[in-house]
């Protein structure tokens, strides 16, 4: 497995996402720029560079037509993927920490940071796809959070609910139509939830947390299904399609990195068996903690972005697809 | 792509303002393309770059939208750049051996020798000179065995833990013998001291010849993995064409496994050829 190393950022990565076909990879970074890359050869297609602060989050719609980004300059921007032009800017009072497209690409959600007296707010916007430069600046729905602030969120299948992960370790579910909290699991993690990603079929999702564990939850009931305990705080987790693995990434906090060697830092992507909850492999390479992981939607590759400013795209070998670490307990997968 | 040569600076020809020769591409009989390109560096010197690559056409079926996106013009900082990865932003990393297995859990931190000297105590083992009581010496049986070999006049190979001197050094924490500091280079069993790069000959290595040209590193590893843990398995390839030269090397973690593999695999039929396995001869030290 030869990784493709993308060095288009001067500062650490915050979020990377594949598009629906997996041929493009978007990378957001603290250096205010979003890059888009061809995943097959690592060629950079272009840069989206109008933000005036760290870009915290990026999301691409299912048709790879529009891109949305949220940044520390208190704005959320809509971009045309093909030309790299900024189409619309929403302004808020605090930084935008997470954005996501609904399943039908008609709606957007954004989470703004809780700071200087402002509460953390989840806003849902209706997107005008015909005339993208003409958007409504007032949200369709506003969910003002009273308890712990939300750090991550995704749309539940069919987009009638939003699932959020909170700083306190809480996982909650909100109704899109009414904005009410319909379900909550207060103590699902013992630390801040750092990432949340949906399974390929949407029936379950994975969360990673600073409490050194990643957990799998049912999307419908928020019931905890699996736990993956590791020895470092986790920053990201994703579920690999095709094979029964989850990929976890983390490492100790950036502030304590210089005090330890990269070997002790455990800056590896860890592969865990989804069902048996056991570690089955590691991929080395980064020399800073992994901040974000993304997996190719068809399960052929995965990418990791780290504090060291590099993105590494790994295309899986044949041996990965043939691997059956637990022998006959696992079904073979036709490619 | 086979290999790329680093930049070659041409020191002689630096007529400033000179026209650059055009980029030339020649393809030889082996299918290797040599690309010679010229540019000026920051001191206006002419720099010749020679890259030798092997182009291989790979066909992939993709959806229409993906194929269409491949022809999009670049934008942002990459505006106007040609197709193909820019070597300033994209590099290919080193090969990573990634194997999914149920037992690949992180290996526990190497346990320190059980005979670690208790701090601040001044007793020395009579047998191995380590900092522990003679009765508790962990090397007692090994030392007895070595002594008996020595009495028979047999010559034991002097490497690793079978060396009495090494044992003594180990028992005392590795840096002192009888309270005196011994530099790593003079310690028994460690003539070279520590280096960042472990030498190739550190592991028992077998040379496998009459190997099928279709065999990959992975095949070689799988073939020999049944005898024990394989540290390294590689097929020797032509530097330019990447074609197998029909032999390879396999390194084991333990000598016993290597010996077993040598006896079993020498003469083994593999892919309609009969393998010939022998010990690998250590390479002559490189001339500087």
From TrEMBL, chain A:
Q: Which Pfam families match?
A: EIF3I (PF24805)
For this UniProt record, the keywords arranged alphabetically read as follows: Cytoplasm, Initiation factor, Protein biosynthesis, Repeat, WD repeat
**Record text on subunit structure and interactions:** Component of the eukaryotic translation initiation factor 3 (eIF-3) complex.
Q: Does the keyword Repeat feature in the UniProt annotation?
A: yes
Where found, per UniProt?
Cytoplasm
Tell me the GO molecular function terms: RNA binding; translation initiation factor activity
Name any GO cellular component annotation.
eukaryotic 48S preinitiation complex
InterPro entries found in the cross-reference section = eIF3i (IPR027525), WD40/YVTN_repeat-like_dom_sf (IPR015943), WD40_PAC1 (IPR020472), WD40_repeat_CS (IPR019775), WD40_repeat_dom_sf (IPR036322), WD40_rpt (IPR001680)
Enumerate the Gene Ontology biological process terms. Answer: formation of cytoplasmic translation initiation complex
Indicate the family of this protein. Answer: Belongs to the WD repeat STRAP family.
Which PANTHER family does UniProt cross-reference here? EUKARYOTIC TRANSLATION INITIATION FACTOR 3 SUBUNIT I
Q: Say which species the protein is native to.
A: Saitozyma podzolica
**Gene this protein is translated from:** TIF34
**Where are the annotated WD repeats, by residue?**
6-47, 48-89, 186-227, 283-313
Q: What is its main location?
A: cytoplasm
Output this protein's name: Eukaryotic translation initiation factor 3 subunit I
User: What does this protein do, in the record's words?
Assistant: Component of the eukaryotic translation initiation factor 3 (eIF-3) complex, which is involved in protein synthesis of a specialized repertoire of mRNAs and, together with other initiation factors, stimulates binding of mRNA and methionyl-tRNAi to the 40S ribosome. The eIF-3 complex specifically targets and initiates translation of a subset of mRNAs involved in cell proliferation.
TrEMBL record, chain B:
Q: Which GO terms describe its cellular component?
A: eukaryotic 43S preinitiation complex; eukaryotic 48S preinitiation complex; eukaryotic translation initiation factor 3 complex
Query: What is its biological role?
Result: RNA-binding component of the eukaryotic translation initiation factor 3 (eIF-3) complex, which is involved in protein synthesis of a specialized repertoire of mRNAs and, together with other initiation factors, stimulates binding of mRNA and methionyl-tRNAi to the 40S ribosome. The eIF-3 complex specifically targets and initiates translation of a subset of mRNAs involved in cell proliferation. This subunit can bind 18S rRNA.
Q: Tell me, how does this one assemble?
A: Component of the eukaryotic translation initiation factor 3 (eIF-3) complex.
Which gene name belongs to this protein?
TIF35
Give a GO biological-process term.
formation of cytoplasmic translation initiation complex
Query: The RRM domain covers which part of the protein?
Result: 204-282
Q: What is this protein called?
A: Eukaryotic translation initiation factor 3 subunit G
Region Disordered, as annotated, extends over 1-31, 177-197
